Amino acid sequence: MLSAALNRVLEITQTGMGHVQLAESGRLRMVRHSGLAREFTSFFAFVDQQTTSRAQAAEQRRQVTVRDVATEDVFDEGSRGVILRAGNRGCHSVPLVNRAGVAIGMVSSHHERPLPGFSPAQLRALETSGVMVGRWLSWHRRTVVLDALAHLHTAATAQR
Which superfamily, per CATH, for 2-158? Predict the structure, then answer.
């Protein structure tokens, strides 16, 4: 599902670079990526500060477009340098939100050139994707993961 979500966002934003992050213990952890340099994926493996557009989009529960990474003040200098060295000049982040509106993850696209922005239709499609994937992730965590943990607990206690 996460790979499909990433592919959908990359298709809508017309790029081959992007990543998916999930919220865990107050920070974002990268779980999927496409077309990004190793320095980038290592540096942004875990994001726990408001020095990136992704962290801000998660906190504010809204899409964030950075038209030009080189000039906008969304990033600290360390983050900006890593992004620019990876060949990215623009980025767009879409929060994955559950039914309560809480951001439980993020899908971001990265672009070789500064972004002029996206059409209203693209923004609606991205928002719909974020809501659908966020609700699926929330359902998956509540049902499949908990059922698996209950099964493991039952199996472990039966062997005593």
Answer: GAF domain (3.30.450.40)
